[in-house]
Specification:
It is a single chain. The longest helix has about 35 residues. The chain contains 20 helices and no strands. It has a single domain, classed as Growth Hormone, Chain: A (Up-down Bundle). Helix 3 runs antiparallel to helix 8 and helix 4 packs parallel to helix 9. By secondary structure, the protein is an all-alpha fold.
């Protein structure tokens, strides 16, 4: 892999470096400033509330499987709530990204935030064993709300940062990991404490309402909307599928997400079923997301030196190995070690996903389209991954089957990223010959 170090540096720094001297002069980036850092804080809070809530879905999944929707609905059916939510979070960016480029940042953020809080309050009035009510509020409603805000809130950072963009995006995405620490602890205390499920969801909704309102006041756009919309999504799609490296990488993200979210959604349930002390079991997801916070920031410091694929591939390989190792994790010490290690490496992959996709863009104008199309297909992988794992688990909790499925899918994703790296090396050799 050392032969392609120069290539990897090129593709990874393309994400954060000016493409040409002329382009750097045409638009000046303050690389911060008071409003730039306030916007970053607002984006971090948005990520904390929205995607952080997705990372905390394991608490809901545990509660639904063991109490709220059981025994009327099986684990595989309940898993569709989280998987549909994940699909909409990722796939909605294809539409919201175009709307952001057209100057609709504020309507997207205000509308998405209002929908998020509304759906949480509606979730708080659902009835036990009423699957359709929970699915509409949490699967469809929250998924759409998070998807509406996800790409625009990250995109607004490009108005202020270019040289530091990869690092800033890593910091912003760490908000979702921190949310994955705070939300599970809070929700577990509420659901299994004096408040109960319904009052607990209302308390969570009220907190998130205040945070979202504050974040929307902090964020400001700086650049005018794009005057030219450029090629349509369909035209861009047909152009991109002629790029073998991009196609293989997209397939890799699809199969990787089929398995990488299994521990995030099921780690608490597995700890409870294994009979771990509630003080340990109810904090496993928070521990995993705490490690994920570190994983989303630290690797971004070395990407510029080693190259994005040279960092992503070992991280995904580690996730695959850890998925298989979950077969032997049954006690408290093993669960905590697993949560820390898997949280770090999965967080690193999620934090480097955007730079990896953008590194294959031929110019900055393609970055948004490539990310939107990739996230759309990746969301489809998230749609089917956890329900398949839930069906393999069954109501008898046969853990080896979904663990094997998760390990194999992440391994397949790692092989796809290796293939993409090899195609990039071959392309470089062809250009130099």
């Amino acid at each position: 892999m050392t032969e392609s170090l120069d290539l990897e540096k090129h593709v990874s720094t393309k994400y954060s470096e000016p493409e040409t001297e002329e382009s750097s002069l045409s638009v000046e980036f303050p690389e911060g400033g008071l409003q730039g850092w306030l916007t970053l804080l607002g984006v971090w809070i948005i990520q904390f509330v929205t995607f952080g809530y997705t990372n905390a879905y394991g608490v809901y999944n545990d509660f639904y499987v063991r109490e709220y929707l059981s025994p009327k609905y099986a684990s595989s059916e309940i898993s569709w709530i989280g998987s549909v939510q994940l699909l909409l979070v990722l796939s909605s960016g294809l539409v919201s990204g175009r709307a952001f480029d057209s100057g609709y940042f504020y309507p997207l953020m205000y509308g998405g935030s209002a929908l998020f809080v509304f759906c949480l309050f509606m979730l708080s009035i659902t009835k036990p064993e009423q699957y359709y009510q929970v699915f509409l509020c949490q699967g469809l409603g929250l998924g759409l709300a998070i998807g509406i805000t996800y790409v625009p809130c990250l995109g607004v950072l490009s108005h202020y940062f270019r040289r530091r963009r990869a690092l800033v995006l890593g910091i912003a995405s760490s908000g979702s990991a921190v949310g994955g620490i705070i939300h599970p602890i809070m929700l577990n205390k509420l659901f299994y404490g004096a408040a109960g499920f319904h009052q607990g969801v209302r308390a969570s909704a009220a907190l998130n309402l205040g945070l979202l309102a504050f974040a929307c006041l902090l964020m400001r756009t700086r650049l005018p909307p794009k005057q030219s919309r450029g090629p349509s999504v369909v035209q861009q799609f047909w152009n991109f599928i002629r790029d073998p490296a991009y196609v293989v990488m997209v397939f890799g993200t699809v199969v990787t997400i089929c398995g990488i979210f299994f521990p995030i959604f099921f780690v608490q349930l597995k700890a409870v079923v294994n009979g771990l002390d509630p003080n340990v079991a109810f904090h496993t997801l928070a521990i995993l997301n705490a490690a994920s916070t570190v994983g989303r920031i630290v690797p971004n410091f070395v990407v510029g030196r080693f190259g994005v694929f040279n960092v992503v591939i070992p991280c995904v390989a580690a996730c695959a190995i850890l998925n298989f190792c979950a077969l032997a994790v049954n006690d408290a010490a093993g669960t905590i070690i697993f949560a820390i290690m898997f949280g770090f490496f999965s967080g690193a992959y999620i934090g480097l996903l955007a730079p990896m996709i953008s590194s294959l863009a031929r110019n900055d104008a393609e970055i948004g389209a490539r990310m939107g199309i990739c996230f759309t297909f990746t969301g489809m992988g998230g749609l089917v991954g956890t329900p398949i794992a839930g069906a393999l688990l069954t109501s008898h909790y046969i853990w080896w089957r979904p663990i094997l499925f998760a390990g194999l899918t992440v391994t397949c994703g790692c092989l796809c990223f290796c293939t993409t790296w090899l195609l990039l090396v071959r392309a470089k050799r062809a250009q130099s010959s």
